[in-house]
Amino acid sequence: MMKALLLNGSPRRGGNTEVLLDALAEGVRSAGGEVEMIRLAELRIAPCINCGGCDQTGICIIQDDAGGVYEKVDQSRRIVLASPIYFYGITAQAKAFVDRAQSSWSRKRIQQRKGEWRDDPHRLGFFVSVAATKGEKVFDGAELTAKYFFDAIGAAYGGALLFRGIEKRGDMEKDAAKLRQAVEFGRRIIA
Description:
By secondary structure, this protein is of the alpha/beta class. It has one domain: Rossmann fold. Helices cover 38% and strands 19% of the residues. The chain contains six helices and five strands, in the order βαβαβααβαβα. Strand 4 (124-131), helix 5 and strand 5 (156-164) form a beta-alpha-beta unit. Helix 1 packs across helix 6. The radius of gyration is 16 Å and the shape is globular. It starts with a strand and ends with a helix. The mean pLDDT is 95.
């Protein structure tokens, strides 16, 4: 059974991002997949301090909750990074976690030098986001961050599910068409 790891970067419990992820999870399960959702805002994740500690080992020296989540990331074949848009980027909680992927990138680079790295074309990362505004470029910066995050962890970019105009608490719950799209997206990432 394929497992999808859903990383919820929203600080708001029960908000639009979580509602969207719940619908996506429904689709994953209906396609025969398994889901684990992690709320990054509930964890103790320090930002990367650019100490260079991971350069030689590929292991972050900071001892907090990120290490355990990255173990799950390493074991997952489907990873979904979800975040509402804050000032055309991902939330601080999601960004702190993404920045800690520096150790994954270092480990990948070390293994490439030793000839030990093997790309897994079936390991995929997906970005899911909602934005209050409807600006044409509202997702550009966040999606680029997500793409580089997935590259650092050794996952090919599988695509995005992005919804504009979702601002107030409850907006996502009221949009049955978008929720159906999320269920279908969940099925697709497992298929």
